[in-house]
Amino acid sequence: MKRLVIHPKDKSTDFLAPIYNRLPDVTLVTTGYSRLEIMELIDEHDQVIMLGHGTPGGLLNVSGFRSGMYIVDSLVAEALAEKDNSIFIWCNADQFVHRYNLKGMYSGMFISEVGEASYFKIPTDQDTVDRSNDTFAQLLGERLMISDALEEIHTSVGQQYQLLAETNDIAKYNSERWYINR
Predict the structure, then answer these.
(1) Each residue of 120-134: b (16+ CB within 10 Å) or e?
(2) Apex CA 61: angle with CA 170 and CA 106, to 5°?
(3) Separation CA 14–CA 11 (nearest Å)
(4) Which SS3 state, helix, strand or coil, does residue 161 take?
């Protein structure tokens, strides 16, 4: 399977790299592409994995893509609508997926920083957040290595991440916001 990974370069989301760094046949896009070039790459690949910071409006352009606030937005949604196995991991990606009726796995509000946890009144520390981040990324990366079936991946990652959620409030919050739309 030919995969396109759009992961804007940002040290605060480096923990997401284990999702794709061992997958075969990956085109990694971190900076430098226009929306048109991104849309062309989407058409050329079997699966699109989008990771980083975002809003309901899309995946934020934090690393110097050519222009605009977003690198994945309403304009790119049309190209993504042709895919049925995309992965959207950013805060409030669920709202983006629903707005454009896209298919795949996705996160809702996903706490990945202590400041976000504080905003949602979840007491925590950096180690707890790091454990949640690292576990989620490792689990998803491992499942992607052995299966292309999104339902299976979604269930397996959800069940295993839920084990951490028993003792980690950040993982508990995030595991309640892990979705699939087929």
Answers:
(1) eebebeeebbebbbe
(2) 40
(3) 5
(4) helix
Query: Are 27 and 72 within 8 A, CB to CB?
Result: no
| Under 8 Å between Cβ of 104 and 180 | yes
pLDDT in tens, 99-156: 999 999 999 999 999 999 999 999 999 999 999 999 999 999 999 999 999 999 999 9
Measuring CA to CA, which residue among 67, 62, 121 is closest to residue 90? 62
Asked whether 103 and 87 are in contact (CB, 8 A), the reply is no
Could you tell me the pTM of the whole model?
Answer: 0.96
What CA–CA distance (Å, rounded) separates 76 from 102?
Answer: 11
Q: Domains in the chain, start-ordered, CATH in brackets? A: 3-181 (3.40.50)
Q: What share of the chain is helix, strand, coil (3-state, %, to 5)?
A: 45, 20, 35
Tell me if 128 sits within 8 A of 169, measured CB to CB.
yes
How far is it, in rounded angstroms, from Cα 132 to Cα 169? Answer: 9
